[in-house]
Amino acid sequence: MQIPRDRVRFNVGGKIFETTSTTLANAGRNSMFGALLDDDWNIKSDGPEEYFIDRNPSCFAVLLDLLRTGALHIPPRIPEKQLYREASFYGLLDHVRAAKWGSFDGNRLALSGSVTGRAPGDGTAIRAGPDGGCCVAHDSMVHVYDWMLEENPPINLNYQRINDVGYIDSENIVVTACERLGRGDGGMAVFNSSTGELTHKFQVTHDDQSKSFTAGALSFSSDYKIFASCKGRSNEYGIGVWDQITGKQIDFFYESPGWYLGEADKLQWLHGSNCLMVATLFPKKDHCYISLLDFREKGMGWCWSDYGIPHTLDEKRVLDAIALEESSSICVVSQYYDLGFMDWRSNGGSVRWSSRSRLMKGRLQEEMCNPKLAMHRGQLFSSMNDSVSVFCGPDWVLTSRLKRSYGGSICDFSIGGDRLFTLHSEENVFDVWETPPGPIS
Question: Which of 25, 45, 51, 373 could form a disulfide with 322 if both were Cys (CB 3.0 to 4.6 A apart)?
Answer without folding.
Answer: 373
